[in-house]
Design goal:
The protein is of the alpha+beta class. It has 2 domains: 146 residues, Alpha-Beta Barrel (TIM Barrel); 127 residues, Sandwich (Immunoglobulin-like), CATH 2.60.40. It is 24% helix and 27% strand. It has 6 helices and 14 strands. Strands 5, 6, 7, 9, 10, 11, 12 and 14 form an 8-stranded antiparallel β-sheet that branches. The protein has a 4-stranded parallel β-sheet with strand order 1-2-3-4. A two-stranded antiparallel ribbon has the order 8-13. Its main location: secreted. It catalyses: endohydrolysis of (1->4)-beta-D-glycosidic bonds of heparan sulfate chains in heparan sulfate proteoglycan. Belongs to the glycosyl hydrolase 79 family. It is an enzyme of class 3 (hydrolase). This is Heparanase.
Length: 290
């Protein structure tokens, strides 16, 4: 088996982690063979795709259920194989292939972006999305290889968000409905440098909410990347606009320019009802990001 001498071992790809028997299985598996794993893997879906509703995709309690599940998995891992990395080996919005007209629409982005933010906060090292292309309703590109909303959301996340997680808190509004995350900016982006920070936020209120950040940061140049649904289908749209411009491939091989919207220094961050976006604070000079 010389060809596999450098192969890695990942497992056990635990499903339905909230169930009692799944937790027992994970603990038993890790006690017996956890030390030989390079990373522990588990799967997560919020809801049953066959019966899920529009309201489920916007329910903050359902979004919070991921944190509960993840903390249970992490507790078992830390108590049996301490310091072992944990991967989310398969995940999307709803199991059973996703929910038609929901899992492939703008509305699914609330679950996806929140899961990325929470995973980073909790120390989950890698998240594998189900699925890029293929069966079901949760793919990132459609049958004609046209990108769907979660594709564009994933692309923006990868380009703007670095791996270092920073502390952030919301005051004055319900943090379950205005969900905010903060990272060092990805310095591989040609526009940004060490010390810059990226805030991303989800507004589950049905009206515009204004985010006021500390004066030191609000006086800086802030680049907005606001994603909104495109067209009359609103939250059920399979197309998105970035800062007012429809995102689409200009040809089969070229990604569009993801153009920022520079905000006036001192301006609040205005997030429309049921929307999400990214804000890069330039020249922030945050020491943790240098």
């Amino acid at each position: 088996y010389i060809h596999y001498k450098n192969a890695k071992i990942y497992g056990p790809d635990l499903g339905r982690s909230s169930r009692k028997h799944s937790k027992i299985l994970l603990k038993s598996f890790l006690k017996s063979g956890g030390k030989v794993l390079d990373s522990v893997t588990w799967h997560h879906y919020y809801i049953n795709g066959r019966i899920a509703t529009r309201e489920d995709f916007l329910n903050p309690d359902i979004l919070d259920s991921f944190k509960t599940n993840a903390e249970e998995v992490l507790q078992i891992v830390n108590s049996t194989v301490p310091d072992k990395s944990v991967w989310l080996g398969e995940t999307s919005s709803a199991f059973g292939g996703g929910t038609p007209s929901l899992s492939n629409a703008y509305i699914a982005g609330f679950m996806w972006l929140d899961k990325l933010g929470l995973s980073a906060q909790l120390g989950i090292d890698l998240v594998m999305r189900q699925v890029l292309y293929g069966a079901g309703n949760y793919q990132l590109v459609d049958a004609n290889f046209e990108p769907l909303p979660d594709y564009w959301l994933s692309l923006l996340y990868k380009k703007l968000v670095g791996s270092t997680v920073l502390h952030v808190a919301v005051t004055g509004l319900d943090p379950k409905k205005l969900r905010v995350y903060l990272h060092c900016t990805n310095t591989h982006h040609p526009k940004y440098r060490e010390g810059d920070i990226t805030l991303f936020a989800l507004n589950l209120y049905n009206n515009t909410k204004r985010l006021y950040i500390p004066t030191y940061f609000s006086k800086k140049q802030i680049d907005e990347y606001l994603l909104l649904p495109y067209g009359e289908d609103n939250l059920l749209s399979r197309s998105v606009q970035l800062n007012g411009y429809l995102l689409k491939m200009p040809n089969d091989e070229t990604l569009p320019v993801l153009k920022e919207n520079p905000l006036i220094p001192g301006h609040s961050l205005d997030l429309p009802g049921f929307s999400y976006g990214f804000y890069v604070i330039r020249n922030a000079k945050v020491l943790a990001c240098i």
